[in-house]
């Protein structure tokens, strides 16, 4: 790289000295939407070489004319770079500059083609016309009134965002969050941030307590203010919920809050926090419950109010239902089952028969067991019994993929629980509840290990009085992503009838995947066949060369060579499932590598870069949040069908259904050539590759391994060291979550 004209080597190596430069952003080399960290190339007047600028920017676009203050620094690899401390945008002054600026993606509805037409018509006056006489855009060929309205809105939004940006910058905060803050509060943005900066942490996804705290400090909120302490306490409980807890014992909460609130100048005192907790509990901003268990000392448990009430209410609803079993003529049920088995020429195991009989009368029950023990087989029989009893039945599962699988396995219609309960995106609530219950007499929820406290509560609430609920799930899988461990609590309470199937059936016994899964579950090292040219087993092991970089190489070879030789299609049959996103054999790196391998760049495949990640037509992607407007849900897999740079939209094909995303919403999706095991819950794939390396040691655990392996329908290949595999099998700490659902179920209702 050559040195910019104005800089000598002597200057580059000297102590940083601030200077101001101006130029037009030529292109973005890297931009993180999260942190705003940007590396860009700048064209400067009277300078032939491009200048590299590095710093935090919100909304930076090619074509923008910027005045930048900062200092030069020599990067050991890339040479001299201008490190930006502060910047402001000025209007572009040349025709090319204006055209580039307008067509850069800044304004929805204006892409490069439209920008060229507008600038060709209005010349240097273009920006003034857009600012003051926008209706004149009608003079430009191909721009209709509807589009002008769109451009007008987008232009005004840009202006408002800039105002928020200037305000935040003046308080020393990175400008990255300006767009998010503006979207949330619109014209009230500055007022909200000034009156209660901690509100940002509650309302805006991506802004945590720490960012809000930084803004608060810049606005002059004292580090020991009650305001700050209260926000810190709530934040510590939210963090605990992200780890799956429904509450925290007070001493642990205080410890976490002290860590959170300690600054260079301030060390919070335990008593002060305890005092605020007490006051918050008096105001019911949090709920404290005093418990004394096993003759231990009295302990105070701290809940966010919604968590407390939901847990309490769920326990009460279940207890009430359990106290009203339906009266059944059991000899008649048994006679039906005998006739059913004889006519179908099948024999249910005693455990399976017990499950069917329990389903005849129990208002709520759990059917659990590992792979191949006949959960689906038994569920089928229960459906037949319920049909014979004249019941109307609904089937549901927590995710779209799991619901789809349930429908395939049973041949019956199955919905997501959200759809069954008629989720309304306008109110963010369910239309089905205790006042408007489901019209069915019997409901089956599969993959019940994925039910978190809140979804379980909504489901039970919507089941009509007298109707029955069957929860089917594998208790040894990972617990729900959301808080609670509902299925485990229901089982441990010993109040809810539970049938645990343990016998692995003959068909399933032929699968080494099923056998290995049961071995892992029992804490035994699984039987994995070392990889060879002619494998016999469907559960294989590849040492992966023991080092992560060799693992990446091994995975690539498996996908391009070994797996196709066994008759599978690498483009759609294979899923790499990783314990975590970081590291060479984590999802982030593997996605980049596998994208290059399975969907390499090509002139006929448009692509865009978002947060440092390339999204290209033909890429496999995964939806990362529940988007009720687009009706796509966390974990849904799709393929990028098209990218429209003019309209700034990207279309994804979700198994025959096209879903369109604005560029602004692209953080909802990410590449899915490799996904995390957590995200794969409830899904199955023909071939699964599981990279297990000591690099992932924090995440390695028995139920992570078990969950990953049981996602494979036809072939599983574990890649990695025996040490990592042993560590995973021997680690059993996933289910330690603070919940009290099971104790509450034991209390009289
Ligand atoms: N009583 C039975 N008689 C004969 N075959 C059975 C019986 N129960 C289950 N099977 C067979 O065993 C195999 C595994 O059963 P099923 O698919 O129902 O198990 P599962 O617990 O749902 O497993 P997974 O969780 O892996 O889906 C199937 O081929 C099924 O037909």
UniProtKB/TrEMBL annotation:
Residues 672-719 form the UvrD-like helicase C-terminal domain. GO terms for biological process: DNA recombination. ATP binds at residues 372-376. It catalyses: ATP + H2O = ADP + phosphate + H(+). One of its GO terms (cellular component) is exodeoxyribonuclease V complex. Residues 590-654 form the ATP-dependent RecD2 DNA helicase SH3 domain. The keyword 4Fe-4S does not apply. Keywords: ATP-binding, DNA-binding, Helicase, Hydrolase, Isomerase, Nucleotide-binding. CDD domains: DEXSc_RecD-like, SF1_C_RecD. InterPro entries: Coronavir_polyprotein_1ab, P-loop_NTPase, RecD2, RecD2-like_HHH, RecD2_N_OB, RecD2_SH13, RuvA_2-like, UvrD-like_helicase_C. Residues 19-92 form the ATP-dependent RecD2 DNA helicase OB-fold domain. GO terms for molecular function: 5'-3' DNA helicase activity; ATP binding; DNA binding; hydrolase activity; single-stranded DNA helicase activity. Residues 158-247 form the ATP-dependent RecD2 DNA helicase-like helix-hairpin-helix domain. It comes from the Bacteria. It is an enzyme of class 5 (isomerase). Its EC number is 5.6.2.3. Gene3D superfamilies: 1.10.10.2220, 2.30.30.940, 5' to 3' exonuclease, C-terminal subdomain (1.10.150.20), P-loop containing nucleotide triphosphate hydrolases (3.40.50.300). Belongs to the RecD family. RecD2 subfamily. DNA-dependent ATPase and ATP-dependent 5'-3' DNA helicase. Has no activity on blunt DNA or DNA with 3'-overhangs, requires at least 10 bases of 5'-ssDNA for helicase activity. This is ATP-dependent RecD2 DNA helicase. The lineage of its organism: Bacteria, Bacillati, Cyanobacteriota, Cyanophyceae, Nostocales. The gene is recD2.
